[in-house]
Amino acid sequence: MFALLILQLIAFSLFPLYFTTLSGPLRQIHFYIYISLVLLIGGFMGNVYSLPVADGVVISGGNLCYGAFMMTSVMFVWVEKDAFILRHLVRLVIIVDIFNIVFSFLTQSILRTDGVINPHGVPPGMFETSTFLIALGGVLIIAELLLLLFIFEFIRKRKQALPVTAAIYILSFVLVLVLDGIAFPFIAFGINAEIAAIVFGGLTGKVLIAIAFGMPLALFVLWKRQAFVDYLEADTIRWRLLASSSADLIREMARKDQDVQRGDIVFKNSTDGLAVVAHTGAVLKANPAFERMLDIGDGGAGSYPAHLQEAFWSDGRPVPLPDGPKETWRREVMFGQGRNRPGILSITPAGEGAGGGETYVYSLTDITEQKNAQERLEYLASHDQLTGLANRRVLDRCLAELRDDAFALIIIDLDHFKDVNDSYGHGAGDRVLQVVAGRLEAIREQYLKPGDTLCRTGGDEFALLVRSGDSGFIEGILEKIQTALGQTVCIDDNLEVFSSATLGVSYKPRAGDRDAFLEADAALYEAKRNRRGSVGVYEDRLTAESQKKMKLGVKLKNALANNLLEVHYQPQFDAVSHKLRGVEALARWTDPELGVVPPSDFIPVAEGTSLIEALGEYVLERACRDGREWLGSGYAPITVSVNISASQLRFGGFISVLSKTLAKTGFPAGNLQIEITESSYIERENEVTPLLKELKELGVSIAIDDFGTGYSSFSYLREMPWDCIKIDRSFITDIPRDTQQCGLVSTIITLAKVMSFKVVAEGVETRGQLDFLTAWGCDLIQGYYFAKALPKENLLAMLPRDSESVALQPGP
């Protein structure tokens, strides 16, 4: 008996497992016919035979058919991944139940009718099946199918591991089949001791049948693993559709048809290439954009290629055909003839095709324009637009990559480039920069390696990174650069300009993590201070000096903001009477950390950090306030001299600042003298002369400070509205011993007297110097012979009261 049971189980299981190997509609037809037959014969098999397979274990033909139906239905749902399958199965159960009821009633009636031939003696009682029991069986089958599917959906949402999910599914199947064997008798015949004994007595057979039909499902999971995985990853069931009317379903399908039509329009007109591709790589369907991109179909060869195995390349290798991917594959690829067009390729699983086998949707976006734009933007971000050379960003990146490699960084700064722009315009300056860039690039190409980098770092400055530690070789490159840039530059047919450059060099590696650009820059500016057109090589002291200046600049800015600077006054005495006639206001600074900071240290820092204007305005206001305070205290009027820098005069709106300062402090303009160095107006007389005339209109007097130290002096004396000339101390030092200095100073004094200028001599320290200057008619004496610069409080004893001036006895 047991062997007969095994044979029936095998027979019932082989057919649905075989059907899963079929494709598309053919598979569905076989499943529906098989399930219908199992339902039809199941209603009668329980009355035909039962198999006693063991003591107390009896399995009826009806139980076998019920188990086969449930197993086949579950397998059908799994392989199709379609909620409508369940709807069709419910409808099929109802139709078969109705047929069984009608067929049983008609057959029983026919067999009981007199005169009907019954050659096999089939008893009519065999078809005396209650309509209620048939209907109840159908309802329970439908309920159990829905319950089982609900359990499946509930477990699927929990996203368990595949073996765990499969085990729970099969266990649920077994429990539902056992539940049916318990529920049906109690519902059909009521709950009593006799029925309970029958139910629980035959429970072993029902468990055996349930487990037996669970084994084909386990075999399906192992054999058709991908189909089971696809079922788990499919959309969840919309239960509303199972209860929808046909009209609702028709409307739903109509909407889906519209979506399909819209999707087809999008498919055909999309600028992205779209194609449905078989697992073999064959193109099943492609839109025009895909055909144009790959030069296939109607747009190219006239038919699709046999496969796409070498149509796309990534990382220098062909993109392999999909091998059952579970997720979308997306990557940048190259395609087209010569594999010279970049694109973004996505490969998405699309389920099984009509002819069997997996299909995939290929989506291809041509990014050639985006790549070109990106490359252009990257070029613009890393190159100078005027010269075409790399910029500072590229240089910084190259320096960061070198680490401990030996190299030299050369910074090249054009000398007097501003004069070209000022004299001939920026177009001429641009032409000079282009010619210089071409000459430097020629040197790089001829003498250097491909890895050596030439950059324009800004303005008239270039940088050359040489990946070599050979100092002799670097010196040769420096000579070639100076020779190339020392030649004239032709702007046009009628204009040539002379070009030269100052160079700064930093050699690496050095001890510690230090900035090569800052080092080369420090060497460059040291060379420019010493002699333009020379080469400066970085030394450690240059960084220390640069850091000191930066620190000094910060402290000076804070000192100005907090009024921590003092103003001292150096007296000016009449050369004959030795009476005080005026003072020169001088900035003095004592820092809590640095102590006394000499003017020779902080004045250049102020000029180099744009603090000179603030410093000049600070001294001007303090001097005017002190001068007004002296007048208010009853002291006689004296001349207060204040130094004004070139940048104040040309860019600082000095006339406006001076007017406001005089108005705010109340100091008389006639007692104020502005001292201007020759460098403020040399070769800028067209700019400066109107400003000096405005100063004269305000009532202040003007002195030339450090006279004789500029590029040219005497030619401007008659053109500028001067009142006074201050002879620089460098001309006073060696008189009266040096006859040449004596002759020069006497000439300056004589010329000044002819032009009605007052003369002030700076730096007078000896009696001999005083006597010489007095003899030649110098008006005022300033220097340590009489007094050094004094704080305001110490100066009060020297100031004359009322209209009398106090004569000072000179020092020994």
Automatic annotation (TrEMBL):
Record keywords: Membrane, Nucleotidyltransferase, Transferase, Transmembrane, Transmembrane helix
Matching InterPro entries: Biofilm_reg_signaling, EAL_dom, EAL_sf, GGDEF_dom, Nucleotide_cyclase, PAS-like_dom_sf, Rev_trsase/Diguanyl_cyclase, VUPS
Residue span(s) of domain GGDEF: 405-540
CDD domains noted in UniProt: EAL, GGDEF
Pfam families tied to this protein: EAL, GGDEF, VUPS
Range of residues in the leader sequence: none
GO molecular function per UniProt: diguanylate cyclase activity
Top-rank taxon, per record: Bacteria
Name the record gives this protein: Putative Diguanylate cyclase
Species of the source: uncultured Pleomorphomonas sp
